[in-house]
Amino acid sequence: MKLKNVLVVVKDIEKSREFYHDLFGLDTILDHGGNMILTEGLVLQDEKIWRDFVGKEIVQKSNSCELYFEERDIEAFVEKLEERYPDIEYVNRLMTHSWGQKMVRFYDLDGNLIEVGTPM
Question: What per-residue confidence (pLDDT) applies to 49?
Answer without folding.
Answer: 95
